[in-house]
Amino acid sequence: MRRIVFGLGGAQVGLTILITLAGGWLFGAYFGVGLAGAFTLGAALAMSSTAIIMKMISERLQLDTEHGKRIVGVLLFQDLAVVPLLVVIPALAADPGELGWTLGLAMLKAAALLALLLAAGQRVLRWWLHLVAKRKSHELFTLNVLLVTLGLAWLTEISGLSLALGAFVAGMLISETEFRHQVEEDIKPFRDVLLACSS
Q1: What share of the chain is helix, strand, coil (3-state, %, to 5)?
Q2: How many Å apart are CA 152 and CA 136, to the nearest integer?
Q3: pLDDT digits (tens, 9 = 90+) for 123-160
């Protein structure tokens, strides 16, 4: 899958962004959209809803087909591309003269914060969820999952990064604990409502 993920997936994301950047360069003055806006638009257009598409191809029994594997490879690369894009896009709002410095600082902060969260956060989170689970309260467990997600989103926000990056990292950390199946069941109503809204 490596060639499909980084070859086809990278080409899909890269070409989509490059095409919108070219459009922004050619027609940006007419529409009032600069290169930063064109990059953001391209990044948004390059992304797909993994949950919706995986559900569709699973229902059609196409996961093991050749085109199914290609679709999954592209979706995997899109998921990997989310983290750098969540760092780069907020930094594009900086003054053009300081863009390089702002991007470098944002990437450095993101690397340090992600290293800290992924190294120490998982152990702390597992300990905390074990402590909450001993109370045998479904509502308390759900509230703590939301607290962790909002807390990490707030932490990345005050670090000068995006709220979405913190929520994304919280999801990654929770998915690596033994409570991931319980959390998946708890958030299923929210997921179904949001999927229905997005479709």
Answers
A1: 85, 0, 15
A2: 24
A3: 888 888 888 888 888 888 888 888 888 988 888 788 77
CB-count burial class (<10 Å; 0-12, 13-18, 19+) for 98: exposed
168 CB contacts (<8 Å, ≥6 apart)?
82, 83, 86
What does the radius of gyration of the chain's CA atoms come to, in whole angstroms? 19
Q: What is the pLDDT of residues 13-49, one digit of tens each?
A: 889 989 988 888 887 777 777 777 888 888 888 888 7
Which uninterrupted H or E stretch holds 134? Answer: none
Q: Distance (Å, rounded) from C-alpha 155 to C-alpha 149?
A: 10
pLDDT value at residue 90: 76
Unique residue bearing structure tokens 């899958």: 1
Size (the chain), residues? 199
Return the DSSP state at 92. Answer: T
Q: What is the pLDDT of residues 73-113, one digit of tens each?
A: 888 888 878 878 877 777 777 666 666 677 777 778 777 77
Domain ranges of the chain: 1-93, 107-199
Are 77 and 10 spatial neighbours (Cβ–Cβ below 8 Å)? yes
**Distance between the two ends of the chain, CA-based, in angstroms?**
28
Separation between Cα atoms, residue 77 and residue 72, nearest integer Å = 9
